[in-house]
Amino acid sequence: MKERDKLIEGATRCLEERGYAHTTARDIAQTSGANLASIGYHFGSKDALLVETMLEATADWADKLRHALADDVPREGYETLWQRAIELLDVHRPVFVANIEAFAQAERRPRLRQALADAQETARLELARWLAEATLPPAKQRAVGAFYLTLLTGLILQHLIDPERAPTAEMLTEALHAVPGACRRMPPLTLRQALLIVDAVNGLSSTDRLAKTQLLAQEVAAVIALGRPEIWAADGCALLCMIEAWTTCQRLAVIDAAERFWACSEGGYEEGLRAVGLLSGS
Q1: Mind listing the pLDDT tens digit for each residue in 188-201?
Q2: CA nearest to 124, candidates 148, 97, 108
Q3: For 3-178, CATH number?
Q4: What DSSP string runs through the chain?
Q5: pLDDT tens digits for 47-82?
Q6: What is the reported pLDDT for 282?
Q7: Domain regions of the chain by residue span
Q8: Taking 80 as the threshold, does the pLDDT of residue 121 lie above it?
Q9: pLDDT at 159
Q10: Rounded Cα gap, residues 78 and 183, in angstroms
């Protein structure tokens, strides 16, 4: 194992056992078996090493959240996101406690404060890329990321202090439903667009849900090309533009509805499309 990796591993164990405030450079060197001077060589300072360790653990937590949304279509309001955040909190609890300790120390440690500030901005932008609609201006996409980061950090703090009375995933989702416009429903589709969607989803061979979201527009275009383009032209072009603007979660919701359509053997096309939510109205 490389010296840098040994230090990260040792710092992780120290954070779990001692917390941020009570971990010294000697503790890390002793736990990792690395040379004390190597902390300065690889990271510049003990604080920088501990922040890097916390960022790696937080990135692992975030990656599991991304996979949760890829593996399970969330309800409006991203109930899956909140539920997995709570479940994974227990796995990474020592790291999040250490994060809180670090924030308390940051007021008098400029370099630590800057590192944490940069990490927050990275989280805002990552959440924006993940959850905001692609058609929004960059400033609004960032605002969406900031909104979800605020909710996630507040949720984490409450569960660390009082898990029994902290908001549940269902409670938070219901609260978002109560805020007008906070959650978008299934994107509205015409009958022709819904038919294009179900035919396209039926042609997706990948079993990976995230891969399906990335291939959806390509498969819709293929369905249009194989049929009579003059019939699908207006609806098809509009649908391709809509798919480009949908978030990953919206694409997952549409794909899930189309798969439910094919699993249902009763009723006609239009009736079935309405039953799974791909068509609205009566």
Answers
A1: 788 889 999 999 99
A2: 148
A3: 1.10.357.10
A4: --HHHHHHHHHHHHHHHH-STT--HHHHHHHHT--THHHHHHHSSHHHHHHHHHHHHHHHHHHHHHHHHHHSPPPTTTHHHHHHHHHHHHHTHHHHHHHHHHHHHHTT-HHHHHHHHHHHHHHHHHHHHHHS-TTS-HHHHHHHHHHHHHHHHHHHHHHHH-TTTSPPHHHHHHHHHHSTTSS--SPP--HHHHHHHHHHHHT-----HHHHHHHHHHHHHHHHHHS-HHHHHHHHHHHHHHHHHS-HHHHHHHHHHHHHHHH--SS-HHHHHHHTTSS---
A5: 889 888 888 877 777 777 777 666 544 444 467 778
A6: 45
A7: 3-178, 191-275
A8: yes
A9: 93
A10: 9
Q: Which residue has the higher pLDDT, 118 or 252?
A: 118
